[in-house]
Design goal:
The protein has helices at 12-20, 24-31, 35-43, 51-64. By secondary structure, it is mainly α. Helix 1 crosses helix 3 (35-43) and helix 2 (24-31) packs across helix 3. The longest helix has 14 residues, at 51-64. The N and C termini lie far apart (37 Å). 13% of the residues are buried.
Length: 76
């Protein structure tokens, strides 16, 4: 049986979401970032969001994983 996200390209954020069982929709609601942007952040390894967007994403991620560092997810 294939995994739910088998074969889909995933960024570090996308892999983290998958590992935690968290949806992109959750991240979009928590950050108030457009779903298309969240999708790009979760799937495109080469996408470089703005610093403002990174801060919003990291605030949401830290609600689940307080020890998370932006360097673990983004090339800052």
């Amino acid at each position: 049986m294939f995994g739910l996200f088998e074969g889909k390209p995933r960024s570090k954020v996308g892999k983290w979401l998958d590992a935690k069982g968290i949806t992109q929709e959750w991240l979009a609601k928590k950050t108030k970032i457009n779903r298309n942007t969240i999708s790009k952040i979760a799937s495109d390894k080469d996408y470089s969001p703005s610093l403002k967007t990174i801060k919003k994403v990291m605030t949401a991620i830290r609600q689940v994983d307080p020890g998370a560092r932006s360097e673990d997810f983004f090339d800052v």
